[in-house]
Amino acid sequence: NISLGFSTAHIALSVNSKLKQIACEVYIPDSKQLFLDLSENKKAIENELSEKLDWNELPGKKASRIKLASKGDIFEQGQWLNYHSWMFAKVIAFQDVFSHYIKTVG
User: Fold this and answer.
1) Strand 10-16 to strand 2-3: parallel, antiparallel, or no bridges (unpaired)?
2) CA–CA distance, 67 with 88 (Å, rounded to integer)
């Protein structure tokens, strides 16, 4: 987990070997209102990131997430540097963009 500077959300990185996927997400553990507020800025956020995100309110749960995934087979060791570079770049971009919106709406 990586801080966004707010206790209401953080960045989480994950690797899914079954789906052969790596991901960067904003995880909101306990604020549906923050998720809804960010959702109202979905188009602007995606434009700033130049990415289409997966917006998961997770109905019936306290948490919500806003996720970006990419192909990534962790068993391909020759690609590890590329995967790390992708994750690093996405963390920096997510920190820049989402911290601004969380500060504005939160």
Assistant:
1) antiparallel
2) 15
Task: Provide φ and ψ at 66, rounded to 5°.
Answer: -125, 115
How far apart are alpha carbons 106 and 104 in whole angstroms? 6
Q: How many C-alpha atoms does 21 have within 13 Å on its Cβ side?
A: 11
User: What would the pLDDT profile of 12-40 be if each residue is shown by its tens digit?
Assistant: 999 999 999 999 999 999 999 999 999 99
Please calculate the CA angle 96-100-105 and round it to the nearest 5 degrees: 150
CB atoms within 10 A of CB 47: 11
> In Å, how far from its chain's centre is CA 91?
8
For residues 83 and 16, give the distance between their C-alpha atoms in angstroms, rounded to a whole number.
Answer: 12
CA-wise closest residue to 55 among 95, 88, 46, 17 = 46
Among residues 102, 105, 104, which one has the least CA distance to residue 7? 102
